[in-house]
Amino acid sequence: MQKVTITQQLSDLLPYQIEIGDNPDHIGGEGKIFFSLDNRYVVKIYNQPGPDKKNLLENVIKLGKNLGEDAHLLAWPLGIVDKLDAEDCLGCVGLKVPSSHVNLTKLIYTRNEAIKQIQQGRNWLDYLKIARSIAAAVRTIHGKGMAHADLHWKNFLVDISTGEAILIDLDGLVVKGFLPPQVKGVRGFIAPEVEMGLAKPSEATDRHSAAVLILWTLLFRNVMEPQICYDAEDDNNDGILGYGEKACFSEHPSDRRNWPPSIGLPLIRQGFPSFKMLTPKLQELTEKTLIDGLHDAKKRPQVWQWEKALAEAQDVTICCSHCEQSFIYPYWIHPAPRRHCPFCGTSVRSPRPVVLELLEEKTKGIYLPTRSIVLDRDRPLFVDTIERSQIPPFNRDGLPILGRTIWDANKSIHCLISENGTAWQLLTAGSGIIKCGKSVELRRGLVLYFSDAKRLLRVVE
């Protein structure tokens, strides 16, 4: 047993001393990781800290104040370790992430690992939530003017049952003009300009790394992985070229160098999921980041845009009638019989889900589409859906329901039953009031009005 002494505490709840074991629980490039004997804290002892490391740590700890409502997604350093037993050292200490969280590599490292997880009952919707949680964690530090500089799958611990992802290794944060980069990152996630030595890690390079990680979580592969060798005699130079100067998005429409075999075929038939299985907005963000912004950091979307698109994607997922796997309903593909489950390949058969648009008032009397939602049989419509400027909450457990979708087999049409006390008004496709307990047929062109302060709902198909 060893004791570590802690100074520069962010929280008064952190003890002055913590007991750790004699042997590290993990060994990394920067140092050794220990868990406290009471299993509450994690301690990192640096191997060879630079002369400015302690000062940098002090500044990082100060930045941990007032992180906002998503602070739980960040494993922030809470104090500095300056003694290991009686000997001087340098390290940091933070709260131990719950044991329910595992390293993201265990879930998405390879396609085969992902297939095994799915065969064991994992739902793709869980991965969508993890991707959203990753984006929320990164957005939180970016919103405070910080960059992580080392975003990759080993620096996220996730709870697959809830979708929560916690960002770790925050002792090397970057703040322009205040905290310089201390690491370069992990190959495969590093932005091309950093790989080529033309720039240092920053918020702009984080945007590339976050996009690669989000897409890896959703598609179970690195969408930037080179498929050809650029230097057979030097592996490091081959990597610099493949992820730097010669970097190319794997589904680039006009450059097929990195197209993997079997792209777009169903996952369980040994296919590689395509980014085309994602919503149009997520596809757009992918292209803006990894095609337009690949070598032009200014064109890369901010991480909050990914978070918003990922949240909205939750409302267009359906369950496959064959493999029972959740996936994004490809409502943008026409004709409708071409819509398939990306996991088993089964066509989405009739009765197909109802596609609706949410319309939001931008100026007096002028409503514009804000996003799409999909309603299948027995699917609830939650009250948050019609609230202006709202994105779907991470968890809807316990939230009030506005209505519920049923299939009327006699009329061969989906209907929406009101389960809310406020009456709805039909603006098109007839007129009338829908009171609580009554239903409305969801026919193309129907527009539902709820109140002046709410969104409108329009049936697209």
Secondary structure elements and their pairing?
Blueprint (H helix, E strand, L loop, with lengths): L1 E6 L9 E4 L5 E2 L3 E5 L5 E6 L6 H11 L15 E6 L2 E9 L6 E2 L1 H4 L2 H9 L4 H20 L12 E4 L4 E4 L24 H4 L7 H17 L15 H11 L34 H13 L10 H11 L3 E3 L6 E3 L25 E10 L2 E10 L4 E3 L18 E8 L4 E6 L5 E3 L5 E3 L4 E3 L5 E3 L6 E4 L2
Helix pairs in contact: 4-6, 4-9
Structure description:
The protein is an alpha+beta fold and 461 residues long. The chain has 3 domains: 2-95, Phosphorylase Kinase, domain 1 (2-Layer Sandwich); 102-316, Orthogonal Bundle (Transferase(Phosphotransferase), domain 1), CATH 1.10.510; 351-459, Sandwich (Tumour Suppressor Smad4). 22% of the residues lie in helices and 23% in strands. The chain has 9 helices and 22 strands. The chain has helices spanning 53-63, 105-108, 111-119, 124-143, 192-195, 203-219, 235-245, 280-292, 303-313, and strands at 2-7, 17-20, 26-27, 31-35, 41-46, 79-84, 87-95, 102-103, 156-159, 164-167, 317-319, 326-328, 354-363, 366-375, 380-382, 401-408, 413-418, 424-426, 432-434, 439-441, 447-449, 456-459. It has a 7-stranded antiparallel sheet with strand order 2-1-6-7-5-4-3. Strand 21 (447-449) and strand 22 (456-459) form a beta hairpin. Helix 4 (124-143) runs antiparallel to helix 6 (203-219) and helix 4 (124-143) packs antiparallel against helix 9 (303-313). The longest helix has 20 residues, at 124-143. It is globular. The mean pLDDT is 93.
